[in-house]
Amino acid sequence: MGNFTTQYEIARQNANEYMRKGQIAQYFQALLEMNKYKKLMVAVIAN
């Protein structure tokens, strides 16, 4: 669970950085990565 949280935070920081730089494609990719880790965290909590 801790690993997913760390990866989620890294993806969130990357998304913020890409948004500031105007790199839209990388920003959306980071958002998808955040969504993936969020789903994994929810699945771990549910089990």
Task: Describe this structure as you would to a colleague.
This protein has one domain (2-46). The termini are close together. The chain has 47 residues and is mostly helical. 91% of the residues lie in helices and 0% in strands. The protein is elongated and about 40 Å long. Helix 1 packs antiparallel against helix 2.
Average pLDDT number: 94
The helix count comes to: 2
H and E string: HH
Helix content: over 70%
Strand-residue fraction?
under 5%
Radius of gyration: 11 Å
Derived structural class: mainly alpha
Globular, elongated, flat, extended or rod-shaped: what is the shape? elongated
Beta strand count: 0
Please summarize what this structure is.
This protein is mainly alpha-helical and 47 residues long.
